[in-house]
Amino acid sequence: MRTPFFRRTLGLAAVLLTTAPLAATAQTTTTDSVAIRKIYDEALAHGQSYENLRYLTGQIGGRLSGSPQAEQAVQWGKVTMEKMGLDRVYLQEVMVPHWERGAKEKAQVKGSKGKGLLLNVCALGGSVGTNGKLKAQVIEVQSLKELAALPADKVKGKFVFFNRPMNPLYVETGRAYGEAGDQRRSGAAEAAKRGAIGALVRSLSLAHDDFPHTGMMRYDENGSKVPAAALSTNGADELSQLLKADPDLTVELEMSCRQLPETKSYNVIGEIKGSKYPAEIISIGGHLDSWDLGQGAHDDGTGCTQSMEVLRLLKATGLRPERTVRAVLFMNEENGVRGGNKYAEQAKSLGEQHLAAMESDGGGFTPRGFNIEADPATVRKIQTWQPLLRPYGSAEFQPGHSGTDIEPLKSQVKALIGFDCDSQRYFDIHHTAADTFDKVNRRELELGGASMAALVYLISKYGL
């Protein structure tokens, strides 16, 4: 999942992108309209993203970095792209962290009168285990700032319960996710500083259900490490209500997660050489790793299969790109970004000329357009292509974060581009056991791949 997901102002580019769409210039032609129509026809009639995703999620499943499933996904990606007849397919070695969840987590509320209630919880990624059962009273807070203001004796020896919900008033759900994310990322570290024995964090979701949402958390390098668990939104509401009636209740938590030594893994890369300017590279990608609770369908199996599909669509339609186009299945976005960093490091060391990088990491829902990070002149050039994508519902070119995996390339490319799709349902299933293949719509997924291929075609033909 790319973070921060929400759109942000990018200086003059923001002004340019909020003005009325520019008309197509003489640079684009009827030939381009016909070519893009061919791309969409091929995707909608013969698209392979959905069936590739079916295999990835059904036969391999969740793919946390360092796991056997992640290694299986690497081999699957390599073989699948080799079968596409690309000019080159290869693996790029990268060392990744290896964290294991262990047995299913258990949590129980115990009231002062002896009554108990089970909570739906999961360990946050990177958390230490509880080393048996950990039992303590609970102090509820709404923010890191509120925690910092509490007297030490109110926190010491307790679980800190971070219960600030995502703001439902934002139309862009990623903005709410970004604002609420500090408690997940830093809650345990801040709780430990105040002498707490653990952190309980409300799941980052606008849905009210029983699915706890995992995600990465971080400790201070020289600080104490206390266990951190996510509660489902229903569980968080229940615990909050119980605390109001019985402030002395306790929570008993049991987690067996652990951090293991780093292990070797790979980015998977396939490319079509440019017919006129092979030294100029356009990278497209998604992250191959996923959290382990579900199948990693929307996060980010869809992004991987769409990126691979871009190459297939260019080949199937006979639209040989003038610039080199690479599909990169990045490893370790979820808990380290090692794959993205390695790709950027090697590109720099090899002196490669990267023209643009595009990422799909917001789910495989209905396409809306693209978020762009570039200088004003480059933004204006990309914006002239909006009319060509408007018939397909993918013409919203707006300022915003492009993608976590491609961000390390920022100093090496003219434009970072994030595929943008409808986000209203994404955080209902994000990082949960509910992120499964059945939540993906075939037509929405294939339309997304076609949208990405259409923009890649234009960049490849006209440059930036």
Q: How would you describe this protein?
A:
Keywords: Carboxypeptidase, Endoplasmic reticulum, Glycoprotein, Golgi apparatus, Hydrolase, Lysosome, Metal-binding, Metalloprotease, Protease, Secreted, Signal, Zinc, Zymogen. Residues 1-26 form the signal peptide. With 464 residues, the protein is of the alpha/beta class. It has 15 helices and 16 strands. Strands 1-10-12-11-13-16-14-15 form an 8-stranded mixed sheet, with helices on both faces. The two termini are 27 Å apart. 55% of the residues are buried.
Mean pLDDT: 93
Helix content: 25-40%
| CATH fold descriptor of the largest domain | Aminopeptidase
Main sheet: strands, sense, barrel: 8 strands, mixed
Structural class by SSE content: alpha/beta
Number of helices: 15
Low-confidence segments: 3-26
Instruction: Count structural domains.
Output: 2
Dominant shape: elongated
Strand order of the largest sheet: 1-10-12-11-13-16-14-15
What's the gyration radius in Å? 23 Å
CATH superfamily of the largest domain: Zn peptidases
N- and C-termini, Cα separation: 27 Å
| CATH structural architecture of the largest domain | 3-Layer(aba) Sandwich
By DSSP, the count of extended strands is 16
User: Which CATH class of the largest domain?
Assistant: Alpha Beta
Strand composition percent: 15-25%
* Oligomer description: single chain
